């Protein structure tokens, strides 16, 4: 299939309705252990909308990697390795727990690039989330597809130097955490829970930590250390994190934004992010 055939997907839309139910927020809270538990009618914490509007592809329509087969909403890119590359989000109004909401999606762009790992195809998906006909959240996600390429080496752990001007947290990405995040997002991608598949088929040294999980953990670190609302968030996944060693979250507060970073066990930036702070 030629790239012209994929670009025919630009402009394709999808609408998903869901209830922002308390049960799912409580499951997220059990996983993430925020400072306070969600309650009925309360505002859903920022980024927790990822635990709703879950993929509903029937089992028989899943691809070998566990994702819904391409060619529906997502274009039929032939490169087999899918990864979450990044996202940009604006929070206009918090979603309220206990009320229905609607997510409207559109394929905004498909870009082919040449990377160090080989050819890459980036699919940019735009989302708008409405509750009571009010636009609450706008988001753009970048999903990347790549060719199999060479096996990915495990990062060599080093002792990370202490940081004095930032808030940090060390996370041990064990299989229980990865399983729960896959379950919360109903994400059947096998790189996150099927070790033989991740290693032998996709060439990773271990299970891959979900990019959105790292982003949510950074958001939790930011929001628990300010009283100001978070009005925007963006992140870019630069290198995979595996379940082989702990990784470190770093948050540096500025006047109106928080610069965030997840450092792999080798000390390199695996994911960089930025959160915008509104007024109290
Ligand atoms: C959920 C879920 C899946 C996951 O959660 S997977 C785990 C989270 N994601 C990752 O771990 C991805 C980590 N990133 C990478 O492995 C590499 O960055 C990637 C995407 C394979 C690309 O590496 P390359 O070395 O091949 O690319 P280059 O650095 O040479 O760059 C080539 C051009 O691509 C642009 N680019 C690279 N990375 C990104 C990015 N994250 N976002 C946007 N654009 C990116 C880069 O700027 C270069 O562009 P030029 O215009 O300058 O050529 C699930 O599946 O649902």
Textual characterization of the structure:
With about 280 residues, the chain is α+β, with helices and mostly antiparallel strands. It has 2 domains: about 1-150, Thiol Ester Dehydrase, Chain A (Roll), CATH 3.10.129; about 150-280, Hotdog Thioesterase (Thiol Ester Dehydrase, Chain A). Helices cover about 15% and strands about 35% of the residues. It is built from 5 helices and 10 strands; from the N terminus they run αβαβββββαααββββ. The chain has a 10-stranded antiparallel β-sheet with strand order 1-3-4-5-2-7-10-9-8-6. The longest helix has 13 residues, at about 210-225. The protein is globular, with a radius of gyration of 18 Å. The mean pLDDT is about 95. Bound molecules: ligand LRN75BOA. Ligand LRN75BOA binds near residues 189, 236 and 237.
Q: Catalogue the ligands.
A: ligand LRN75BOA
Shape: globular
How many DSSP-defined strands? 10
Largest sheet: 10 strands, antiparallel
Q: What is the string of helix and strand elements?
A: HEHEEEEEHHHEEEE
CATH superfamily of the largest domain: Hotdog Thioesterase
Helix content: 10-25%
Instruction: Give the mean pLDDT.
Output: 96
Radius of gyration: 18 Å
Question: SS-based structural class?
Answer: alpha+beta
Distance between the termini: 52 Å
Q: Walk across the major sheet and give the strand order.
A: 1-3-4-5-2-7-10-9-8-6
Number of helices: 5
Organism: Chloroflexus islandicus
GO molecular function, one term: (3R)-hydroxyacyl-[acyl-carrier-protein] dehydratase activity
Protein name: Acyl-CoA dehydrogenase
């Amino acid at each position: 299939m030629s790239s012209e055939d994929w670009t025919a997907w630009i402009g394709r839309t999808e609408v998903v309705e869901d209830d922002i139910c308390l049960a799912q927020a409580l499951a997220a809270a059990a996983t993430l252990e925020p400072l306070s538990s969600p309650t009925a009618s309360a505002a859903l914490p920022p980024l927790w909308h990822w635990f709703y509007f879950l993929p509903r592809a029937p089992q028989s329509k899943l691809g070998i990697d566990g994702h819904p087969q391409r060619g529906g909403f997502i274009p039929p890119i032939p490169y087999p390795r899918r990864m979450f590359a990044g996202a940009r989000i604006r929070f206009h109004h918090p979603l309220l727990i206990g009320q229905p909401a609607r997510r409207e999606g559109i394929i905004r762009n498909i870009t082919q690039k040449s990377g160090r790992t080989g050819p890459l195809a980036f699919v940019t998906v735009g989302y708008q989330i409405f509750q009571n006909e009010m636009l609450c959240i706008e988001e753009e996600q970048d999903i990347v597809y790549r060719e199999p390429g060479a096996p990915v080496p495990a990062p060599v752990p080093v002792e990370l130097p202490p940081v004095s001007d930032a808030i940090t947290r060390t996370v041990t990405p064990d299989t229980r955490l990865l399983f729960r995040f896959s379950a919360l997002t109903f994400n059947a991608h096998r790189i996150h829970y099927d070790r033989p598949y991740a290693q032998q088929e996709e060439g990773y040294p271990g299970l891959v930590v979900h990019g959105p999980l790292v982003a949510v953990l950074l958001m939790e670190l930011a929001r628990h250390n300010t009283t100001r609302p978070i009005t925007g968030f963006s992140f870019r996944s630069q290198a995979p994190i595996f379940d082989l060693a702990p990784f470190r979250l770093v948050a540096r507060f500025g006047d109106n934004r928080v610069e965030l970073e997840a450092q792999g066990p080798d000390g390199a930036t695996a994911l960089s992010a930025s959160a915008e702070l509104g007024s109290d």
